[in-house]
Design goal:
rod-shaped, alpha+beta, 13 strands, 409 residues, eight-stranded antiparallel β-sheet, 5 helices, three-stranded antiparallel β-sheet
């Protein structure tokens, strides 16, 4: 009967330990589930509202300038505007590269923190396991050392009929409970520490993942910025090449054009200018010099020095096939291919003043034909040294190129 009682007490103690373990396991599971909710509600990081707003405003301004530059029509943009847009996109790429570098550093720091905390969790888990093992060993040692289940020694310890033995049993049990209580307290603290560390690990991992996603977003922005930068850079390079080619073509054709102009103006000196097909004329305001704009469109390259070379006219860029009109009345002295100028028309206005219309896609007049101001003479094209449809317009006095703006309204 006493043996049965011992077995019953041992079973009770075993059940208690199992129940305590189950309770702890449930607490860990609940803590983990609760943490998942906590992580979902943790903000990405608190920043000072005022400084954050200032940064946001600066970023918005930069993005607006970048967007405007990226949307620039490279064929219609003026040289200076195109250069400014390329510079803006270069600055944007530099800013994006800096943001990517910052994001990568932050991601690496967050990952290192997560790794460090994970190592701390592993250490605490080992400590918890060691404390649980210690408690199990102490329970066995206590059971054996007190003689429980060992015949007469155990019976004497649990026999309450003898006051002396009862006192001895009380002392022994209190001693065992005191040493176990210390280990239990350590285990409880270790489990609390483990819960906190697991939360910290999860937060660190979530932050690392957020920063990794942010880094990828920054990389995507950088790729897009580089694509826009390259597009405008290519356009600027093409523009520079075009202007330089036109300058080279002008230099190559200079003597020839001068000879053509000299011979033609001399031959036309005795003829009267004017006439032309009035039905084909366009009505535009004329300058004091009597000139009108030969076509309508944005001026993409002006007269003067461009990237180390002299650009001797205006580049006007309406759509391909747009009509080109005589800037003033005169006589056509050239209508044909002329090297880098492509299809070129020269109109002699008398007094040594000649206008030139280059890169035409086609002609509406021929050599020797008199034209009135605003008469249709040709069509915008991209022949000769040209990267896109535009009209290269020159004004020449005595064979030398001068700034067309001096004669236009």
């Amino acid at each position: 009967m006493l043996r049965s009682r011992y077995n019953h007490d041992a079973e009770v103690r075993t059940n208690r330990r199992a129940s305590a373990t189950a309770v702890i396991a449930r607490r860990v599971a609940l803590a983990t589930a609760a943490f998942a909710v906590i992580v979902a509600t943790i903000p990405g990081g608190a920043v000072d509202a005022q400084s954050g707003n200032a940064r946001a405003q600066r970023e918005a301004v930069r993005q607006q300038k970048t967007s405007t530059a990226a949307e620039l029509n490279t064929l219609e943009a003026e040289d200076a505007v195109l250069e400014a847009a390329v510079a803006e996109l270069n600055a944007n790429v530099a800013a994006q590269e800096a943001r990517v570098a910052d994001a990568r550093r932050a991601t690496a720091d967050a990952q290192a923190s997560a790794d460090r905390l994970a190592a701390e969790v592993e250490a605490t888990e080992r400590r918890v396991d060691a404390l649980e093992e210690l408690l199990r060993d102490r329970a066995v040692e206590s059971y054996i050392s007190q003689g429980l289940g060992q015949g007469t020694a155990g019976e004497a310890l649990l026999d309450a009929s003898n006051p002396t033995d009862l006192e001895l049993r009380k002392v022994l049990i209190e001693t065992v409970q005191g040493s176990d209580r210390d280990a239990i307290d350590q285990l409880s603290l270790a489990r609390q520490q483990l819960d906190r560390q697991r939360e910290e690990v999860a937060v660190a991992i979530a932050e690392a993942e957020r920063l990794e996603a942010e880094t990828q977003a920054r990389l995507n922005e950088l790729d897009a910025a580089r694509a826009e930068q390259q597009r405008l850079k290519d356009a600027l390079d093409a523009r520079i090449s075009k202007v330089q080619s036109e300058v080279a073509a002008l230099a190559a054709e200079e003597q020839n054009l001068t000879a053509i102009i000299a011979a033609a103006t001399a031959a036309a000196a005795a003829q009267s200018s004017g006439g032309g097909n009035a039905a084909a004329n366009v009505e535009r305001p004329a300058s004091a010099a009597g000139l009108i704009w030969p076509t309508s469109g944005p001026v993409t390259s002006g007269y003067g020095m461009r990237w180390g070379a002299m650009h001797a006219g205006l580049d006007i860029a309406p759509p391909y096939g747009t009509g080109v009109y005589a800037a003033n009345s005169g006589t056509v002295i050239l209508a044909g291919g002329q090297g880098g100028y492509g299809n070129l028309i020269l109109v002699d206005h008398g007094g040594g003043f000649v206008t030139a219309y280059a890169h035409l896609s086609g002609f509406a007049v021929g050599v020797g034909q008199s034209v009135g101001r605003g008469s249709l003479i040709g069509y915008v094209g991209s022949t000769g040294d040209s990267t896109g449809p535009h009209l290269h317009f020159e004004t020449r006095v005595g064979g030398a190129a001068q700034n067309p703006y001096n004669f236009l309204p």
